[in-house]
Amino acid sequence: MSREMQLVLDSIWPILKAGLVITIPLSLLSFAIALVIAIVTALARISNKRYLQVIFGAYVWIFRGTPLLVQLFIVFFGLPKAGITLDAWMAAIITFSLNTGAYASESIRASILALPKGQWEAAESLGMTYWQTMRRVIAPQTIRISLPPIANDFIDLVKGTSLVASITLADLFMVGQQITARTYEPLIIYTLCAFIYLIFISVLMVIQSRLEKYASKYV
Amino acid sequence: MATIVQFQHVYKSFGDHEALKNIDITFQEGETTVILGPSGSGKSTLLRCINLLEQPERGQLTIAGTTIQLDKPIVKKDKLAIRQSTAMVFQSFNLFPHMKVLENVIEGPVTVLKQSRAQAVEKGKTLLHKVGLEHKMDSYPSQLSGGQQQRVAIARALAMEPQFLLFDEPTSALDPELEGEVLRVLQDLAEEDKSMIIVTHNLNFARRVADRILFLENGEILFDGTTDAFFEHNNNERIQAFIQAMQLY
């Protein structure tokens, strides 16, 4: 067996394991929190309450308008100066949730606004309250429309977690960097890392297409 | 006959455009009124004010026993009461695409009126039978023709047992071929003495079903009288020209 082949075989498990232990749980947990934030934010921004629009609009503006890596550094390295010390896990989850929440809220908001006005009017004509209209008429249709952009936000999140290497979390990519430092085989090791990300994200894409098919059954 | 819809000095404008000017009118129970008029005359706006899809800015509205002063914010309770006592059928149907036909029909009774599902289903089936679509109750709206969708929308409106049925150009989005099936349903309802207000461009239909005709132009009521008086004994030049133009078409 060639030396390169042996290197791949020796490295694949440590890298994959870091993906399974850090990258995936971090992505799933952050995404779950981000979804809740995104729904609340989208609802606040389409509400008729001016102060809600301003507060949540500012949040989205800040998180879409600054780099993810900078946000991560502020939370992990910066906040201790203000007396808030978070471990790397906590800092990562908070930052990724807020960042993805900002993007996903825009996906949801755009989907709600894309629904024909007649859907609101038909529900209102039946005498539904705002929340009945939301729950029974608007939300189910919004899910279908927002699936593709939300899946995109999720994919961006999974790839974005590679930044946690810079705040001391030994994720998939950090383990790759450590092996490279030892073996000096950046081409092989980083390609291997890319390949593992590709597998993770391909699984997501399959799930996305299943969900889209299910959610579109009435079209 | 009881009065159930009353407009008193009602004004509505969109920006600089005055859509309704000092509307003073009442609608009676059991009456079929057709509203005619050129495009932009305010007839749809008048109809949409009745269930508050448009909110006029001045005057007073009384709908099914609920009176509101329009220059003040409308209390949520009054708004919901008015909407539950009226039902609207739209030009573009506006069925809920993610619900099957029967689910569309029982949505209002179950979610708004809090009827039991079994009871709503039973009534829903009867209404779908009435509009000739019982066999489509498990289809999605996207699987239906326009005429069928509009008939489901009528069943959905009837399921609320409203005191007043409002129709906003119910056949304008339909091919002439499909128009007939919807008009037949409307005619049946008119014969049952349902209280209806219909905005339409179809003069033949108006002549056939209306007890009363309103003619609007520039946000004002130019004519309010019996169908006979409108078509046969009308010497208003503007209305004669309108009738002629519509019949030529």
Automatic annotation (TrEMBL), chain A:
Superkingdom as given in the UniProt entry: Bacteria
Q: Which UniProt keywords apply?
A: Amino-acid transport, Cell membrane, Membrane, Transmembrane, Transmembrane helix, Transport
Q: What is this protein called?
A: Cysteine ABC transporter permease
Pfam families (alphabetical):
BPD_transp_1
The Swiss-Prot or TrEMBL record describes its family as follows:
Belongs to the binding-protein-dependent transport system permease family.
Q: Which residues cross the membrane?
A: 20-44, 56-78, 84-104, 187-207
Q: Where is this gene product found?
A: Cell membrane
Residue ranges annotated for the ABC transmembrane type-1 domain, each copy included: 20-205
How this chain sits in the membrane, per its record, is:
Multi-pass membrane protein
Automatic annotation (TrEMBL), chain B:
Membrane topology (UniProt): Peripheral membrane protein
Domain ABC transporter, first and last residues per copy: 5-243
Question: PROSITE patterns of this UniProt entry?
Answer: ABC_TRANSPORTER_1, ABC_TRANSPORTER_2
Q: Which organism is it from?
A: Lysinibacillus piscis
Q: Which domain of life is it from?
A: Bacteria
Question: What InterPro entries does UniProt report for this protein, alphabetically?
Answer: AAA+_ATPase, ABC_ATPase_HisP-typ, ABC_transporter-like_ATP-bd, ABC_transporter-like_CS, MetN_ABC_transporter-like, P-loop_NTPase
Q: Quote one Gene Ontology molecular function term.
A: ATP binding
The UniProt keywords, alphabetically, are:
ATP-binding, Cell membrane, Membrane, Nucleotide-binding, Transport
Subcellular location field: Cell membrane
What is the protein name given in its UniProt record?
Answer: Arginine ABC transporter ATP-binding protein ArtP
Main subcellular location: membrane
Pfam families, alphabetically? ABC_tran (PF00005)
